[in-house]
Amino acid sequence: MKKILVIGAGGQIGSELTPALRKIYGQDNVVASDLRLNGDWVSEGIAEKVDATNVINIVDVVKRHNIDAIYNLAAILSATAEANPKMGWDIGMGCLVNCLEVARIYGCAVFTPSSIGAFGPETPPDNTPQDTIQRPKTIYGVTKVAGELLSDYYFQRFGVDARSVRYPGIISNVTLPGGGTTDYAVEIYYAAVKKEKFVCPLPEDTFLDMMYMPDAIDAAINLMEADPEKLKHRNSFNVTAMSFSPKTIYHEIKKHLPDFEMEYRVNPLKKAIAATWPNSMDDSCARREWGWNPKYNLETMTTDMLKVLKGKL
Ligand code: NAD
Ligand code: AKB
User: What's the confidence (pLDDT) of residue 178?
Assistant: First the structure.
């Protein structure tokens, strides 16, 4: 039986990945951690306060709980990191280096998400290949490319079972995203259900890859469970579920809520970041090597998001 440590359990992905892991592996086999002990993840199972930039904190928890797999979700998302690049690097890379070192010494597997942010303006933007040019122009992207390389290095040099996916923008209805360029695609649903006019920070024709949270959770767990013999790639797999622009998602929501309104007030930083990211990725390697197969598209995700948020708000 696996003993899992989740780092960053209180974040957008961690708050849904943690209960999913507890359901599969058992409450006693998943230790959830974050900088602060607040949120449902604390009362629902084993919880620890961990600052992953401090390697001793990770060692302590890994030893006490006999951890053999780490899901490392600690990071500062693209727009926030751009406002404080040193902090973006220190957290993005600092936590990863510590996780990989602990994994090397204590024999753990490591999952650390990369991102569409690992690509840049020289990358082919349409049907972006798995193996292609990666020259990102944001500090977030720099940490993601460095993290992919470092994770592959630890695998090749030390045999650390490090795996990752390049997540697109993740859309969810439990925890709001914090400081990303794709956050608008979550916020738009909250505005629609609250009957508020949505102010969109990206231009109407900005196409980006996106994914609904249930698929993002499946991606992490299925990759970590995949047969290592079948993995030709490791860090990191392109995964996507849909590609849309602000205009497309607006019209999709309007099918359910015809009075919904949106205006554009473009945020220059987010516009510049989004312009360097792919319009749509080719995720055929993930499909071939470990059976990636998302369940939700824009239509089914929108129906579900609106239903859940109507109940919640
Ligand atoms: P988030 O910002 O919502 O959550 C990150 C969590 O990490 C927070 O709860 C924060 O408190 C915690 N954290 C920060 N510094 C820490 C530290 N030093 N020690 C321990 N915990 C720390 O982020 P998220 O959206 O859940 O993203 C998780 C991972 O997935 C990140 O690597 C992110 O880059 C990646 N990713 C996310 C998306 C997305 O749309 N959410 C898309 C692509 C990739
Ligand atoms: C962000 O916008 O920073 C994240 C991501 C796509 O990595 N949502």
Answer: 87
CB 169 near ligand 2, within 6 Å: yes
State the pLDDT at residue 2: 86
pLDDT at residue 92, rounded to an integer: 97
Among candidate residues 25, 71, 106, 140, the one labeled active-site is 140
Radius of gyration over every alpha carbon of the chain, rounded to an integer in angstroms? 19
Q: Write down the residue that tokens 């990206």 correspond to.
A: 202
Q: Please give the pLDDT value at position 1.
A: 60
Q: Say whether 140 is catalytic.
A: yes
3-state SS track over 97-142: HHHHHHHHHHCCEEECCEEHHHCCCCCCCEEECCCCCCCCCCHHHH
Q: Which residues of the chain have pLDDT under 50?
A: none
Secondary structure element (H or E) that encloses residue 5, with its range = strand 4-7
Indicate the pTM of the whole model: 0.98
- Helical axes 55-64 vs 85-106, angle rounded to 10°: 30
What residue owns the CA closest to ligand 2's atom 4? 180
